[in-house]
């Protein structure tokens, strides 16, 4: 009889028996050929990467006793940004300067967490909810639930109790996860109004919800904060530490139903999420895991530059973002390049990698992006253009501008077209309203953001125009 391991509850490894039983103390099966062991090791690293990155990000941003304005808060507590990120912000890569974030790391392994969202008074709001594998499984907000007050309860994978009347049940596939809300903010003058909305969001464990009092604070992560961004922390882990952490986190965050094929392959070399002991792995497997790290990371980083469709120097991912199924390499690539990314129905992020001549963007050059009147980015929410340096973070610039878009006082051409200027120095007094500064030196990339994109974006019939470099540069 064969035995198929399944995760029947968070952190509990069960057995689905088919045929005759296999003794738990039977000899381990023979390893596959060495080349297949190496292939499985690389696939396992890619599969595990988002869960490890999420956990290190969670630890980094919950290792505080009280909520801060830097998106740090104890578990089950919201932290709200009070101002747009600046170059000192490293909590997530490729942040935006269009919305004020509201971040909450939830843990519903003990009981549900109830969240009440007030009326945003016509303001665009989005609160995507990610499980620990980075899958967006719910997306309350203007597009889906509308702008009326809305109350829901996040419940764990196996919780089946009763909720108060009027509270929507939202089941999380994992015991822990992340809400990274975005509230449209029309510049610093709009901060106060957004702060009022953020403060009116109510959150409490189910046991404290109906009492109306202030719930006790969630526990702070015992992990010390690191000066390094989480993506760098992941790279610092050797293979035994990486897979030990992966296994630990998987105990409360079971794999998805579509994961059985890769779990079966991993099991052939002794890797079972929730039960991995690096010291007990065979030397050949440990060696393969160590050797797999570099090529797996290279593939994860490389897929960011090749995912989706490439048109006019922009790469736009229309499928493998926000929800992934068994597309593990794209899931890992999105986690590396933009942890917390939304589904395309909520936002599309064309990434500008090269100019009209196919050359990577360089701070020593000057660029113009020309939108014809009919090419202005079509979005029901809003659109913006953001610049990132080689770290995938904001770069210092003389006017502290990191994004530009439809809520800025842009200067349109007489025919209704629009020119945006991307360069290090000012394009001149008459053009500074449309200037997005480049870094002082080095390469950079761009991101268009279209929140609540219109159908012509989703079906690919609209594409952003190429960025043209000035002659003689």
In short:
The chain has 473 residues and is an alpha+beta fold. 23% of the residues lie in helices and 23% in strands. The relative contact order is 0.15.
Q: Helix fraction?
A: 10-25%
Number of helices: 9
Rg, nearest Å? 24 Å
How many angstroms does the end-to-end distance come to?
Answer: 71 Å
Calculate the mean pLDDT score and round it. 90
Description:
The chain has helices spanning 34-62, 191-200, 206-209, 230-236, 239-250, 260-267, 283-304, 328-338, 455-458; strands at 2-9, 12-18, 79-80, 99-107, 113-117, 125-126, 129-131, 136-138, 150-155, 168-171, 176-184, 202-205, 309-311, 314-316, 347-348, 351-352, 367-371, 379-388, 403-405, 418-423, 435-437, 445-453, 467-469. The chain contains nine helices and 23 strands. Residues 1-25 have low confidence and may be disordered. The strands form five sheets. Strands 13, 14, 15, 16, 18, 19 and 22 form a seven-stranded antiparallel sheet that branches. It is 23% helix and 23% strand.
């Amino acid at each position: 009889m064969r035995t198929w391991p399944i995760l029947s509850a968070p952190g509990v490894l069960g057995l689905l028996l088919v045929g005759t039983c296999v003794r738990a103390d039977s000899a381990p099966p023979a390893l596959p050929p060495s080349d297949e062991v190496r292939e499985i090791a690389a696939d396992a690293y890619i599969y595990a990467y988002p869960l490890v990155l999420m956990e290190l990000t969670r630890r980094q941003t919950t290792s505080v006793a009280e909520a801060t304005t830097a998106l740090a808060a104890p578990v089950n507590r919201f932290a709200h940004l009070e101002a747009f990120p600046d170059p000192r912000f490293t909590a997530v890569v490729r942040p935006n300067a269009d919305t004020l974030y509201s971040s909450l790391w939830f843990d519903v392994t003990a009981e549900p967490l109830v969240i009440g969202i007030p009326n945003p008074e016509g303001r665009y709001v989005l609160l995507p909810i990610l499980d620990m594998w980075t899958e967006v499984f719910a997306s309350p907000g203007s597009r889906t639930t509308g702008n009326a007050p809305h109350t829901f309860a996040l419940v764990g994978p196996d919780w089946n109790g009763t909720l108060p009347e009027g509270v929507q049940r939202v089941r999380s596939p994992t015991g822990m996860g992340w809400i990274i809300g975005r509230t449209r903010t029309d510049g610093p003058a709009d901060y106060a109004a957004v702060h009022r909305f953020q403060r009116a969001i109510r959150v409490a464990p189910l046991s404290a919800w109906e009492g109306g009092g202030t719930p006790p604070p969630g526990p702070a992560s015992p992990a010390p904060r690191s000066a390094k961004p989480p993506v760098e922390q992941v790279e610092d882990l050797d293979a035994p530490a990486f897979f030990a952490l992966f296994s630990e986190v998987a105990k409360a965050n079971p794999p998805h139903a579509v994961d059985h094929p890769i779990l079966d392959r991993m099991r052939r070399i002794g890797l079972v999420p929730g039960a991995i002991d690096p010291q007990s792995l065979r030397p050949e497997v440990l060696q393969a895991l160590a050797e797999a790290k570099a090529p797996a990371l290279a593939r994860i980083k490389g897929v960011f530059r090749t995912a989706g469709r490439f048109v006019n120097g922009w790469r736009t991912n229309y499928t493998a973002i926000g929800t992934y199924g068994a597309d593990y390499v794209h899931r890992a690539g999105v986690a590396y390049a933009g942890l917390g990314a939304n589904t395309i129905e909520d936002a599309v992020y064309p990434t500008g990698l090269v100019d009209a001549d196919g050359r990577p963007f360089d701070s020593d050059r000057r660029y113009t992006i020309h939108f014809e009147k009919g090419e202005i980015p079509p979005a029901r929410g809003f659109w913006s253009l953001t610049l990132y340096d080689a770290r995938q973070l904001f770069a210092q610039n003389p006017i502290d501008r990191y994004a530009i878009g439809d809520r800025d006082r842009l200067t349109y051409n007489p025919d209704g077209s629009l020119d945006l200027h991307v360069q290090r120095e000012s394009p001149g007094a008459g053009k500074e309203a449309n200037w997005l500064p480049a870094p002082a030196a080095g390469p950079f990339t761009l991101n268009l953001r279209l929140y609540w994109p219109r159908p012509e974006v989703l079906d690919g019939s609209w594409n952003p125009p190429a960025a043209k470099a000035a002659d003689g540069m």
